[in-house]
UniProtKB/TrEMBL annotation:
The lineage of its organism: Bacteria, Pseudomonadati, Pseudomonadota, Alphaproteobacteria, Rhodobacterales. It comes from Rhodobacter lacus. This is Mannitol dehydrogenase family protein. It comes from the Bacteria. Pfam families: Mannitol_dh (PF01232), Mannitol_dh_C (PF08125). It is an enzyme of class 1 (oxidoreductase). SUPFAM superfamilies: 6-phosphogluconate dehydrogenase C-terminal domain-like (SSF48179), NAD(P)-binding Rossmann-fold domains (SSF51735). Keywords: Oxidoreductase. The keyword Amino-acid biosynthesis does not apply. Residues 24-269 form the Mannitol dehydrogenase N-terminal domain. Residues 279-468 form the Mannitol dehydrogenase C-terminal domain. The keyword Oxidoreductase applies.
Length: 482
C-alpha cells in the first residue's frame, strides 16, 4: 500500500498496455477455456512470427464476459497454478468482444470482413446442435429451427452459414472454421452440421462450402476451472490491479491441429508448441478417453461420494487407485497410441495433473452436460471393450453414477443441481421407475446418447452397478471393484 492512500482505496482496474492487434480471427464462445488456451497460443504465435491475428471474441449467450473485458480494453490475467505457486501473465490478444443476441448483425459483419481468415469455436458439446450419438444436425433444435427461417441467427452453425453466404456473395474466400471443443472428429462434425444447415437454406451455398471450406480437426487440452469470486480476489492481491475476468489454469497445455486451412493462412502456432499434423484422430481418442473419460467418471462418482473437487477426489486413495485401474485395464487396451506417445506415461502425467491442489476444479462443473459427453468419453471405450470381449466394470460403474446423478438426489438425500440440456427428461426417465433396473432401462432408452446395441449390452451390468451405488454408496462401490 502506498503512503498517503486510505486503506480502502480500490485497486486500479487492469487495462491493456499495448494497442489492440488487427483482427484475423473471430472466436465464438469466449469462455475461460479459450482465453487460457487458444488465445495464449495465438498471442505467442504473433510474437514469434507476426501476422494480423487479433481476436474478436463473441459470446453467444450472456453479456458477462463482455461487460468484464470491455472496460479493460480486452486485457485479462491468465494465472498459471502449479503446486509450487502461481504465475500471472497479462493477455492482450482479444481486440474486442461482441454479444451475439444483442447484435447479431455486427457479428455477421465481422465474420464477413475480408481480414478475418479463421472462425474458431468453443461452444461446448451442446453448441453444435447435433445428436451426440450420431453427430447429425438436429433440425428440430429450437435454435436451428429459428436459424433456418431468420436471416439473423442464434446458433453457432447459423452464424457460420449466414456469414459464409455473405462472403460468397461478396466474392471472398470462406474463412477456415475450426472447432476447439472436446468432440471426436470435431472438424468433421462441425462440417457436417454446417453443410446440413446450408443445404436446407441454399443447396448452392452448401456445394460452395463443401468445395472451398476447410474444417480442421483439433485436440485441445488444458485444465481450466471456471473462475470463482475468490480467484478474482487472489489475482487482485497478487498483481495489485482489479481484473474482473481472470482465468485460472494448470501449467500443462497441448494443442494438436490438422493442418488444413483456407489458402494455408493461420498464425504460426507450430512455433510455440502446437503440433500441426495430418491426422488428429489418435490424439483426440487418447485425450477424450483418457482425460475426459476419467474426468467424467471421477466427477459423478466423486460428487456422489461427497468430494467437491477433482484434486480432493484424487486425494482419496480409493479413487486414485480406481482411476489408475481405469487407465490400465479398461481405457489403454482399447486405444492406439499416437505416434511417439507412451500411454502409460500419459496416464501418470494425468494423475499428477488431477492431483494439483492449486486447481480447484469442481466435480459439479465437470458433471455438467453429461448427455452430450458420455458417448465420446465413455461409450466409445465400452463399445470397443465389448467387441473385444473385455470387461469394463469401472466404466460401467461410471455410467451408473451418471444415471444416479441425473436422478437429482445425492447420497445424503440432498438435491443435486443437474445442468444438462436434457435435464428435465433425464429426471422424468429416472423417476419413471422405482427399481435400479427400471431406472437404468428407462435412461438407456435415450437414443441421442445410447445406440440400441449399446443399451442392450449395458442393461445388465449397469443395473447391477446402480444397485451397488444405492446399497453401499459410491465410495464403497468403487472400492468393491478394485
Ligand atoms: C472437463 C474438461 O469440464 C469438463 O468436462 O473434462 O473441460 C477438461 O478439463 C478439459 O477438456 C481439459 O483439457
Amino acid at each position: 500500500m502506498e503512503a498517503g492512500l486510505p486503506a480502502d482505496t480500490p485497486a486500479p482496474r487492469l487495462y491493456r498496455t499495448t494497442p489492440a492487434p488487427k483482427l484475423g480471427i473471430v472466436h465464438l464462445g469466449l469462455g475461460a477455456f479459450f482465453r487460457a488456451h487458444g488465445a495464449i497460443f495465438t498471442e505467442e504465435a504473433i510474437a514469434a512470427s507476426g501476422g494480423d491475428w487479433g481476436i474478436l471474441g463473441v459470446s453467444l449467450q450472456s453479456a458477462g464476459t463482455r461487460d468484464a473485458l470491455e472496460p479493460q480494453g480486452g486485457a485479462y490475467i491468465a494465472l498459471e497454478l502449479a503446486p509450487e505457486g502461481a504465475k500471472a501473465r497479462p493477455v492482450q490478444v482479444i481486440a474486442g468482444v461482441l454479444v451475439a443476441p444483442e447484435n447479431p448483425e455486427a457479428v455477421l459483419a465481422a465474420m464477413a470482413d475480408p481480414g478475418v481468415k479463421i472462425v474458431s469455436l468453443t461452444v461446448t458439446e451442446k453448441g453444435y446442435c447435433h445428436e451426440p450419438a450420431t453427430g447429425a444436425l438436429n433440425l428440430e433444435h429450437p435454435d436451428i429451427a429459428h436459424d433456418l427461417a431468420a436471416a439473423l441467427p442464434r446458433s453457432a452453425p447459423g452464424f457460420i452459414v449466414r456469414a459464409l453466404a455473405r462472403r460468397r456473395a461478396a466474392g471472398l474466400a470462406p474463412f477456415t472454421v475450426m472447432s476447439l471443443d472436446n468432440l471426436p472428429h470435431n472438424g468433421q462434425v462441425l462440417r457436417g452440421v454446417v453443410l446440413a444447415l446450408a443445404r436446407a437454406i441454399d443447396p448452392d451455398l452448401a456445394d460452395w462450402i463443401a468445395a472451398e471450406g476447410r474444417f480442421p480437426a483439433t485436440m485441445v487440452d488444458r485444465i481450466v476451472p471456471a473462475t470463482k469470486p475468490e480467484d478474482i480476489a487472489e489475482v487482485e492481491a497478487l498483481i495489485g490491479c482489479h481484473d474482473a475476468a481472470p482465468v485460472m489454469h494448470e501449467p500443462f497445455r497441448q494443442w494438436v491441429i490438422e493442418d488444413s486451412f483456407v489458402n494455408g493462412e493461420r498464425p504460426g502456432w507450430g512455433m510455440v508448441g502446437a503440433q500441426l499434423v495430418a491426422d488428429v484422430t489418435p490424439y483426440e481418442h487418447m485425450k477424450l478417453r483418457m482425460l475426459n473419460g476419467t474426468h467424467s467418471s471421477l466427477a459423478y462418482l466423486g460428487y456422489l461420494a461427497g468430494h467437491e473437487t477433482i484434486a480432493a477426489t484424487m486425494a482419496d486413495a480409493v479413487f486414485a487407485r480406481f482411476v489408475a485401474k481405469l487407465w490400465k485395464d479398461e481405457i489403454i487396451p482399447a486405444l492406439t497410441p499416437p505416434p511417439g506417445e507412451d500411454l502409460g506415461a500419459y496416464a501418470e502425467a494425468l494423475a499428477r495433473r488431477y492431483a494439483n491442489p492449486a486447481i480447484r476444479h469442481r466435480t459439479w462443473q465437470i458433471a455438467m452436460d453429461g448427455s452430450q459427453k458420455l458417448p465420446q468419453r465413455l461409450l466409445g471405450t465400452l463399445a470397443e471393450s465389448f467387441a473385444a470381449g473385455r470387461h469394463a466394470p469401472g466404466l460401467q460403474l461410471a455410467v451408473a453414477a451418471w444415471m444416479r446423478y441425473v436422478g437429482g438426489v445425492d447420497e445424503t438425500g440432498a438435491p443435486i443441481e443437474v445442468k444438462d440440456p436434457l435435464a428435465a427428461r433425464l429426471k422424468a426417465l429416472s423417476d419413471s421407475a422405482e427399481s435400479p433396473e427400471g431406472k437404468v432401462a428407462a435412461l438407456l432408452g435415450l437414443r441421442e446418447v445410447f445406440s440400441e446395441e449399446m443399451a442392450a449390452a449395458l442393461l445388465a451390468p449397469v443395473s447391477a452397478a446402480y444397485a451397488r451405488l444405492v446399497a453401499v454408496g459410491a465410495r464403497k462401490a468403487v472400492e468393491e471393484i478394485l
